[in-house]
């Protein structure tokens, strides 16, 4: 079974790259520190629902897509 943090982090990375954004761009748009974005994408962090909402909003996607 795939670790949920790695799966969600991978989905964030996928959508970020699809939008042509860098981690720095996503950090700025979501008002989250760059290093935290990096750790989320690597599956090293367990982001709160609020953080996932902020990231999804910055990516212009529904939060639920991160879990598909």
Q: Please state the average pLDDT score.
A: 96
What is the global morphology? globular
CATH architect. name = Orthogonal Bundle
Beta-strand fraction estimate:
under 5%
Per CATH, the superfamily is lambda repressor-like DNA-binding domains
**Helix-and-strand structural type:** mainly alpha
Write the element-wise H/E pattern from the N-terminal end onward. Answer: HHHH
Number of distinct helices: 4
Tell me the domain tally: 1
Please summarize the sheet with the most strands: none
How many strands? 0
Q: Uncertain spans, ≥5 residues at pLDDT below 50?
A: none
> What is the CATH C-level name?
Mainly Alpha
Helix content: 55-70%
Instruction: Kindly report how far apart the N and C termini lie.
Output: 14 Å
Give the radius of gyration: 10 Å
CATH topological fold name? 434 Repressor (Amino-terminal Domain)
Structure, described:
There is one protein chain. The protein is 62% helix and 0% strand. With 68 residues, the chain is an all-alpha fold. The radius of gyration is 10 Å and the shape is globular. The relative contact order is 0.22.
Structure at a glance:
The chain is mostly helical and 68 residues long. It has helices at 4-18, 23-30, 34-41, 49-59.
Describe the secondary-structure layout.
Layout (H helix, E strand, L loop, with lengths): L3 H15 L4 H8 L3 H8 L7 H11 L9
Features:
68 residues; mainly alpha; 434 Repressor (Amino-terminal Domain); 4 helices; 62% helix; globular
């Amino acid at each position: 079974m795939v670790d949920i943090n790695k799966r969600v982090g991978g989905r964030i990375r996928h959508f970020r790259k699809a939008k042509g954004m860098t981690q720095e761009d996503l950090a700025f748009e979501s008002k989250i520190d760059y290093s935290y974005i990096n750790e989320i994408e690597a599956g090293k962090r367990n982001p709160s629902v609020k953080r996932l909402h902020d990231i999804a909003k910055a990516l212009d996607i529904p939060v639920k897509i991160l879990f598909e």
